[in-house]
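Let us work through a complete example step by step.
Step 1: write down the sequence.
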Amino acid sequence: MREQALFDKIDLHLIRVLHTVLTERSVSRAAVRLGMHQPAVSAALKRLRALAGDPLLVRSGGAMVPTDVALRMVEPAGAILRAAEALFSDARGFDPRSATRTFRVAASDYLDPYFLPRLVARIKQEAPLCPIEILPLSPDAHYHALLAQGEADVVIGNWPQPPDDLHLGRLLSDEVVCLVSQDHPAVRRGWDVQEWLEAEHIAPTPTHPGARGVIDGYLDSQGLCRTITARCAHFSLIPDIVASSLLVLTTGRQYCERFTAHLPVTILPCPVDFPPLMYYQLWHGRSHHSAAAMWLRECIRGVALSLRKQ
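Step 2: predict the structure and record it as tokens.
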């Protein structure tokens, strides 16, 4: 096939399907993310396979995995989509009232249970035509790769040592405390460091393989190790788990205070002298000067500031 004839068969929508199918590694999940019917995504994938002369996705056990050819296509496809999205919006400046670009925010729900709902509400109020995708910081999605590949505009979370090759904006700091059931023995008798270490703890699932959270990273630096007997990938569910067990959640005071009014839980001081938790937003150099991305980062900072004042 001549190069010009091949080029004429490719449009931006087809590249978006390619990028989404390869990053999701699933036709059904790609269809949900694209807002398309699954047969339409399958038909587009068939066209892409014909154009590439490669199967692109192949079955491995119960999962689909990209071929070597497909893996080499992910980053160029992402770069094309990012360039297309910014081609006119940033060239003319960013007007939130008329903009239609998609904002992608990767975040845990550690910071405050009100944070993400209020952020979405603010974006939809001020930029009503802009779609929003809230992406999880899951074990199979490293935040650095999300930013580098343009899969996220901003990542929000807390890290003991944020990477120095990403841009950083501080959102807030918070005191480390413990959330426990009102029936926990430590409520009556208190605890020392050793008793706290030996208590049964619940912790979030690591954001990527080998990751150490802020709490356990600090304990490691002090030669200490707590007893984690439960992990949960859904941080917002942990207070309910704590309320009906003797598990201990150690995290920021601001997060814990949101649950004391409607769950049988209480906040205890942590006997380990942790430094304050620092929450940040991180972004890649590729979007540092983007007018739309700067507007988004200011929205995030404003929402975090409003919660801090409550």
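Step 3: interpret the result. The chain has a mean pLDDT of 88.
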